[in-house]
Design goal:
The chain contains 16 helices and eight strands. With about 375 residues, the protein is of the alpha/beta class. Strands 1-8-5-4-2-3 form a six-stranded parallel sheet, sandwiched between helices. Strands 6-7 form a two-stranded antiparallel ribbon. It is globular, with a radius of gyration of 20 Å. It starts with 9 loop residues before the first strand and ends with a helix. The mean pLDDT is about 95. The structure holds fe (ii) ion (FE2).
């Protein structure tokens, strides 16, 4: 099988990587960046980590700090208006997946114009302004993907947008930016990464390049996520989670996600559940539903993560994997849709629409067991 792998041109990984922005800009021949972030990150002082060296180097930059969680087309257009004010030659995204995806969307619209919905899959957008991504969560992996998810303000659809124009030219992966991440955010973003790795490994588009990265990422996340949650300033755990999140991003960007992410996006769009949390709600049940169609692959994950042994059969390995995922959700206090506060009628009235949106994203077709709409409805019913 022929695999095509896309990566950022520069990956700087490790403590202090975010302080290398000036050097990175120089390497890429860029001189007029627009920083894109959200109000919380700005208030944390992380912006200053970028701004102080930029000022010292005499680089004139702009700042848009109004990114919103689950970025909407309205918020993207607001950032685009700021970008069009001046002659910026790149966007520097600082934040979680929401700020990174906002910056990606702006980079594409700045180059090509039009509306965001013009760029949703199956369209591939091949170019845009250069993007430098500086993640502040160990989660989305967006710094290493050619994907952005933007919610259409009018239709509430979580639109999947893909193409090389959305791939950062550089990613500065600095775990020191995650040392203050709160417990819930650490858990949710970490499970998002775990899903990226697991889904990439079992995906019908998996390949030997992504397999090795996905396996390393899933083991690292499984073995460090509880510590990262319990000890926020544990540098070893944070460093491990941060690298694994980027690896998870590389894995799924080049092997695709599957049914968990396909079903997760509609939950986020309709009920405003954070992305990692809606993935978490789905992770054990979708895995349990899928294992029989790729038992060797799932069992290998279980052994690699250390929850099954070489002596276990594939069948037992699969069962142990599902059990371990269920236990992880309990330990990380992941609520179901009901406990999260979603009304029963709202949930059950939306199942058909959610199933249609899930299928339309294309991700479920990469799952080892390919679902019909009715299967997806039943899975949504099961996680309620
Ligand atoms: Fe994700």
């Amino acid at each position: 099988m022929l695999a095509t792998i896309n990566l950022p041109r520069i990956l700087r990984v490790g403590a202090g990587a975010s302080r290398q922005l000036v050097a990175t800009l120089a390497e890429l021949g860029l001189t007029r960046p627009l920083l894109v972030t959200d109000p919380f990150i700005k208030s944390c002082g992380y912006c200053e980590r970028l701004q102080t060296p930029l000022d010292a180097a005499g680089i004139a930059y702009g700042l848009f700090s109004d990114c919103v969680p689950d970025p909407t087309t309205d918020s993207v257009y607001a950032a685009l208006a700021v970008l069009r004010d001046r002659d910026y030659d790149c966007v520097v995204a600082l934040g979680g997946g929401s700020s990174l995806d906002t910056a990606k969307a702006v980079a594409v619209l700045a180059r090509h114009g039009g509306l965001m919905r013009d760029y949703k899959v199956p369209r591939q957008v091949d170019s845009g302004l250069p993007i430098i991504a500086i993640p502040t969560t160990a989660g989305t992996g967006s710094e290493a993907t050619r994907v952005a998810v933007i919610t259409d303000t009018q239709t509430h659809e979580k639109m999947l947008c893909m193409g090389l124009g959305l791939m950062p030219v550089a990613a500065l992966v600095d775990f020191e930016l995650t040392l203050t991440m709160p417990w819930r955010l650490t858990a949710d973003t970490g499970i998002d990464s775990l899903c990226h790795a697991l889904e990439a490994y079992v995906s019908r588009k998996a390949n030997p390049f992504t397999d090795s990265i996905a396996l390393t990422a899933m083991r690292t996340i499984y073995q460090n996520i509880r510590t990262a949650c319990a000890e926020p300033d544990n540098r070893q755990a944070r460093e491990a989670m941060m690298l694994a999140a980027t690896q998870g991003g590389i894995a799924f960007a080049n092997a695709s996600v599957t049914l968990i992410h396909g079903m997760s996006r509609p939950i986020g769009a309709l009920f405003h559940v954070p992305h990692g949390l809606s993935n978490a709600m789905l992770l054990p049940e979708v895995t349990a539903w899928s294992v029989d169609h790729a038992p060797a692959r799932y069992a290998y994950c279980a052994r690699y993560m250390g929850v099954a042994t070489d002596a276990d059969s594939d069948e037992i390995g699969c069962a142990k994997l599902v059990d371990a995922l269920r236990e992880l959700l309990v330990d990380l206090q992941v609520p179901g849709p009901q406990a999260y506060g979603i009304a029963r009628n709202d949930w059950f009235d939306s199942l058909q629409l959610m199933a249609e949106q899930a299928l339309a994203s294309g991700s479920p077709a990469n799952n080892p067991r390919i679902p019909l709409a009715q299967d997806i409805v039943q899975l949504y019913e099961r996680i309620w």
